[in-house]
Amino acid sequence: MIILLPFRFRFSGWGTIIFSCFVCIGQVVFALGGIFNAFWLMEFGRFIFGTGGESLAVAQNTYAVSWFKGKELNLVFGLQLSMARIGSTVNMNLMGWLYSKVEASLGSAGHTTLGVTLMIGGITCILSLICALALAYLDRRAERILHKEQGKTGEVIKLSDVKDFSLPLWLVFVICVGYYVAVFPFIGLGKVFFMEKFKFSSQAASAINSVVYVISAPMAPVFGFLVDKTGKNIVWVLCAVATTLVSHMMLAFTLWNPWIAMCLMGVSYSLLACALWPMVAYVVPEHQLGTAYGFMQSIQNLGLAIVSIIAGVILDTRGYLFLEVFFIACVSVSLLSVVLLYLVNRARGGNLNYSAKQREEIKLSHTE
Fold it and tell me: What range(s) does the Major facilitator superfamily (MFS) profile domain occupy (predicted)?
């Protein structure tokens, strides 16, 4: 987020290119650390990768809200999530196979095989950089053809914009953090949970643990289209958070087939991303979008870092039942924030829960 701040809004193209370069360099350094058996070098590579990757997500969101407006935005965020989860699923299922092929080729396992495998996987980072270059070209071309004057308002994306954020936006931030800290850390620890509580084999536990991502790949665009057609973003977010809460309660307090709970979590996870993230564009001025999305990404990552540590401590000292209760508490905070957001939005006559028809009417009135 901090790296993005010096750029004016229209320079998100340059930001995307720079951050993609960070990702490529970070992956190469990470792979070299494996090849030379230098763990500190691998850590440094992941630091570079993370610096570029998280900032790249902010630039990507800024692109989305600058190119797509109103009823298209939810579908765009759904497609973004879908592509990300396809990548995650392919990675989880392909890298083990690729490692075995490299091992067979080199004739031995070990750090060299790992490093070479990681280097081959880095090809996807190069493809990402190529896409960033193409996108920057298309963005500048569209700006020239359509005579767009983005970034010439005299406003610069800056950290001091945070003090101007409205209460609804802060509630969106709380919803985001409270929700995602109960999903990503759970998936990170979920494999052993399914093996211990439900006596799944390692392979079966891996399969059910990845089903959230598998479901989100095809379902996210569908839900994005649905939210675009209906509007009512807050209602959809409420449904997603409530369903996730039910999923965690089923996993914690019942012995029902966990596929039911995990499928529900996958559906709700897909729905939330399509309905929640576009709401930022409805409550902040255009020149603050980069700052808003950057801040949202930053506090989400901070929450994930802190909660991952807490989750590990709870798991080591109290076990999975207490860990699930902790995740239920996190989702409950998110659910309470959704209810507060609904009430605040209604009291202020906000546009977060407008129907698609209402938004279209307002858009037409502004163009007349």
Answer: 1-348
